[in-house]
Amino acid sequence: MPNCAQYDKLPSLQPLLFNPCCYTCQDYTWALGKKEIAAVKPELVVFSDRNSRNFQCGLPLSCSYMLNFDNTQMAKRVFSGFRPTGKQHIGNYLGTIQNCVSLQADYDCVYCVVDIHALTTLESTEALQEDVYEMVLDWLAAGIDPQKSIIFVQSHVPQVEELHTLFSMLTPLSWLLRVPTFKEKVKMQPQNVNYGLVGYPVLMTADIALYKGEVVPVGEDQLPHLELAREIVRRFNSLYGFVFPEPQAKLTSFPLVAGLDGVQKMSKSYNNHIEIAASPEEIMTRVRTGFTDPARRYRSDPGHPEACNIFALHKFFTPARVEEIASECRHASIGCVDCKKILARSISSALEPFREKRAVFVAKPNYVTEVLAEGANRAQAIAEETIKEAKEKMKLPRRVNLGDIRE
Ligand code: ADP
User: Fold this and answer.
1) Would you kindly state where each structural domain of the chain is located, as residue ranges?
2) Which of 34, 270, 280, 282 would staple 264 via disulfide (CB 3.0–4.6 Å)?
3) Structure pTM?
4) Residue 22: pLDDT over 60
């Protein structure tokens, strides 16, 4: 093994850490993938936080070791943040949550309720706690598993605010002013165009970068933000040296779910949504209000399924009958009312296991609180390492403990 002075002292680490290729590091802290290692040798104590990428090795600081290990085998980190909008809707599920669930099999996942982001648009914070609770319940019921993933609340790990400030110093204002969602928000809330609103993508970048997120499951609406996040970390890395990987968006096959109004994307802000926790009756009521093909004014008019957002939902929820429904619509042998009834029933039965699982979690009153408390601890351990690394790279003056310089 080249360049690894201590390699022979680490026999039990060999299969886990060291491999004669690709990654070289001179520091005594490494960012790695998902592995758990306990103490190995008295002179070389190696440990990691559970599910954390921060492996620390108690090598003396005075030594400069060239340690080689294979980081190609390490699981990439997934990060996704959701504003606390309470119960989740089908757009959230199809656009993002289903990916968050499936990615857990192969990646190291971190999922965050971004409550600070919510402050950019909220008029009142009264419902915030409740919204966080309802939202996390939906995630858990949908299959996000706290044994596999870190689930936490953004404001519980304050290092994100530090990284946000550092990033804001290297992000040109012109980049932020051209973001489409900023322009949209200015129109939506002209009475509250706050400083946080323009910095929203900088905070989002800090969220992802703090956990060195490489894969970001999002809906299509978030792509401009993610592009900006990539530009910001690229700028940091080129100014100060590499710390942050460039995050890549991960879309589902349903990256943009239209709202029931047929105009906007499905969103709670537009009240054009169907909640995934909705009862069969609520689903039926909601679907009944759905906008359909505008050219089909009478039952006898032939329809255009490709222009109908009810049909778009059939593609996901009624896959076995989708061709048949399209053909019946085109030949006007099925009306919109019946087509909607089929959809409501399909959605209800697809979400039944979800409702059952959710009820189990509701019956455990402290469960969500425990998940979030554990998640915050795990997230904070990673965040502390990253912020330390970023500040060192930026050459910010190091804070010295008095005890270290006084006898
Ligand atoms: P909302 O739009 O309901 O306020 P958020 O903006 O907090 O929800 O979005 C949370 C996640 O869900 C993001 O990754 C976003 O891209 C995704 N998402 C939200 N609405 C949709 C939609 N209509 N179609 C696809 N994905 C969506």
Assistant:
1) 7-73, 77-257+364-385, 278-362
2) 270
3) 0.81
4) no
| Topology (CATH level 3) of domain 77-257+364-385 | Rossmann fold (3.40.50)
Asked if residues 76 and 110 have their Cβ atoms less than 8 Å apart, the reply is: no
Closest CA to 41 of 25, 53, 59: 59
Question: Is residue 261 lining ligand 1, measured as CB closer than 6 Å?
Answer: no
Of 92, 96, 132, best ligand 1 pocket probe by most atoms within 8 Å of the beta carbon: 92
Using CA atoms, how far apart are residues 131 and 271, in angstroms rounded to an integer? 16
Atom of ligand 1 nearest to the CA of 267: 3
**Residue 50 in this model has a pLDDT that exceeds 60:** no
> From CA 166, how far away is CA 228, in angstroms rounded?
15
Nearest residue (by CA) to ligand 1, atom 19, is 92
CA dist 345 and 57 (Å) reads 56
In this structure, the residue with its CA closest to atom 14 of ligand 1 is 218
CB 99 near ligand 1, within 6 Å: no
Q: CATH topology for 278-362?
A: Tyrosyl-Transfer RNA Synthetase (1.10.240)
Q: Is the pLDDT of residue 54 over 90?
A: no
User: In 200-216, which positions are buried (b, 16+ CB within 10 angstroms) versus exposed (e)?
Assistant: bbbbbbbbbbbbbbbbb
